[in-house]
Design goal:
The chain is an alpha/beta fold and 450 residues long. The protein has 17 helices and eight strands. It has a six-stranded mixed β-sheet. Helix 8 runs antiparallel to helix 9, helix 10 runs antiparallel to helix 11 and helix 11 packs parallel to helix 14. The longest helix has 20 residues. It is globular, with a radius of gyration of 21 Å. The chain starts with 11 loop residues before the first helix and ends in a 12-residue tail after the last helix.
């Protein structure tokens, strides 16, 4: 899932494109998102050592439906597209031209000269051009006009603008206003998720508070057993993703050490989904992944069979937990280019210093049954990357990448979820996760130069 449930988490620019252009990225590749994104971190109630049973029994026939196979086939492409680091120079050039055109047009226009749909379009245009002040001004003017058609999207643009302007307090205030005055629909849900991920990524304690404020509404939506649609527009939250989002409150509470409240939130979610809900194979996969990752939290790291080490031809493949305040594992398939690009930062993050007791390993697995192209992983040679099997990867409920897993000194899993691309930067998300687990800073500030 993304944030600790930073259950699926998004590049800042890509995340804003989600808000300003209407693109729905797969689940948080820029910001972490609880239970899915940066990583999940909640504990289970009844028996945390037992993987959750499926919400519904997927049949072999259902899994082999053309639509299910198509989505599975498209998943690697969807994940790769989430990170702009994977875009070609041509694509990035086209994006730059479009953003520059939008920025120049935004500079020439004044919000007071427009109204109704044109005013919203101006907010949209300025957001695409990354001109956050005029984007926010136009969005706020549209909100005040009380025109209903794009109001939820205008709130989303305003929230995104405040986040980019480092005004998290105003972004949070605007998000709460949105939650209070707008019908709880798909647009509101996506904006709430974005805000919770931004708070979690910044280490802001308001993340679990906001999740609890939203919790009754998302539970009510889940109880209908159908996808959540937007009042206006075509945004949709599938039932599986809605379940995953509903789990975020439990993940956040677990991170905050509020185990009793986490257990209550989890029970709410499990009761809410009706047994008669029509679930697709993808829905079931998302639900089972969220449950599995949640139940892994607080359990001993299972034995991980290792196939080889990329450190050197003679290096023994092993994960050293001994004496470590924390151990970070980054799991990813061999086709995940942005994951490979994170490995130098990850290795430097986990480098041994006199005042540091961390270790970090990449865990790579073959993403398909075909034999890998010779030399395809040469760029990983000499790095702290270990190869595992696809079956081992699936045992961690992996669906979005890179999947981060953090183990404490006693070998217990304290965090699991999708990581943002800058997770290992100095004072980045992973450092905040480690501090939260260990209770002190153990990472010596490192400035990585590409």
């Amino acid at each position: 899932m993304q944030a600790a449930f930073l259950p699926k988490r998004v590049l800042w620019v890509a995340a804003m494109l989600t808000l300003s252009v209407g693109i729905r990225l797969a689940d948080g590749q820029a910001l972490p998102s609880p239970g899915s994104a940066p990583a999940a971190s909640a504990e289970s109630t009844p028996n945390p050592t037992q993987p959750a049973s499926p919400a519904a029994d997927p049949t072999a026939a259902d899994a082999q439906l053309p639509g299910a196979i198509y989505k599975e086939a498209m998943h690697p492409l969807d994940v790769v597209r989430q990170s702009m680091e994977n875009w070609s120079e041509t694509e990035l050039g086209a994006l730059h031209i479009g953003m520059r055109t939008a920025s120049e047009a935004c500079y020439r226009m004044q919000p007071e000269d427009y109204s109704n749909g044109d005013l919203y379009d101006l907010a949209h245009l300025c957001a695409f051009g990354q001109d956050w002040n005029p984007a926010n001004t136009a969005a706020q003017r549209y909100i005040v006009s009380k025109a209903p058609q794009h109001r939820a999207q205008a709130y989303a643009i305003s929230v995104g603008a405040f986040v980019h302007l480092n005004a998290l307090d105003l972004a949070l205030e605007t998000t709460r206003e949105l939650l209070r005055v707008e019908p709880y629909d798909a647009e509101v849900t996506y904006t709430l998720r974005y805000m919770k991920d931004a708070l979690e990524s910044a280490g802001n304690p308001e993340a679990p508070v906001l999740a609890e404020e939203e919790h009754p509404l998302i539970i009510e939506a889940l109880s209908k057993g159908t996808p959540l649609k937007a009042e206006y527009g075509d945004a949709v939250v599938s039932t599986g993703l809605l379940y995953e989002m509903a789990m975020e409150a439990a993940f956040f509470e677990r991170y905050a050490g509020n185990d009793a409240q986490a257990a209550t939130d989890l029970a709410d979610v499990e009761r809410a989904l009706p047994p008669t809900a029509a679930l697709t194979a993808e829905d079931r996969q998302e639900i089972d992944s969220a449950k599995l990752q949640y139940h892994l939290l607080g359990t001993q790291l299972p034995h991980i069979p290792l196939l080889r080490s990329y450190k050197s031809a003679t290096a023994k493949a092993r994960i050293d937990l001994d004496g470590r305040a924390a151990t970070v594992l980054v799991l990813f398939p061999d086709w995940c280019v942005q994951c490979k690009k994170m490995m130098p930062e990850m290795s430097q993050f986990g480098a041994t210093h006199p005042d540091t007791s961390l270790s970090a390993y990449g865990l790579i697995f073959k993403g398909d049954s075909e034999k890998a192209t010779p030399g395809a992983q040469d760029d990983l040679l000499g790095s702290d990357v270990l190869e595992i099997s696809a079956d081992t990867a699936r045992s961690f409920g992996s669906t979005d990448y890179p999947l981060g897993i953090v183990v404490d000194r006693a070998g217990f899993i304290r965090f699991i979820g999708t990581l943002p691309g800058d997770a290992f930067n100095s004072k980045g998300y992973m450092e905040r996760v480690i501090v939260r687990i260990v209770g002190r800073q153990v990472v010596k500030p490192v400035h990585f130069v590409r």
